[in-house]
From TrEMBL:
Entry-linked InterPro entries: DinB/YfiT-like, MST-like
SUPFAM superfamilies (UniProt xref): DinB/YfiT-like putative metalloenzymes
Protein name: DinB family protein
Species in which this protein is naturally found: Myceligenerans pegani
Pfam families per UniProt: MST
Amino acid sequence: MTTTPERWTQGTNPYDWVDGDEDPRQAFAHPVGEKETLANYLRHYRLTLVMKCEGLDAEQMARRSVPPSTMSLLGLVRHMAQVENHWFERILKQQPDVQQIYDTPEHSDADFNGAVADPAVVDEAWATWRDRVASADAWLDAFPEEDLGTTVPRRDEQLPVRDVLVHMIEEYARHLGHADLLREAIDGRVGQ
């Protein structure tokens, strides 16, 4: 017989730590049109990353999953700042001279390897991520919905803007699965 872990018996839904009516992601629940739908999924996942990290100190944010992995919640915040920077600034805005945020040719995993238990590193990571998200949102808000099929060059291919937005949603969804496990290992918080 399977028993329910005690931590799951405390709310109306065992996987929620925020009641549905209080979930800030509900603001994105009723999009109209393709652009708003894509933007809302992206905002929803971005906010979920914030919620997954809420209430953690620098040591918890930097805590690694399992050896030899360098993955941590702080590393994920840094990585997603880098992803936002790459896809929106360098690809969609066509600014290839914009510098990578953490990684360099010599240090390709600096986003994760540099995620150390220092409050200043945590503050910098969140500030950088928020700045990249604000820049991306400003660009997307101004981009005409009817132009989502417009292509942008990347290496030897042409990518529709729509595909880049779907890829960003995919990036967050993938890494939020990691965040679920990382957060549960820290304090048992699951789901949502």
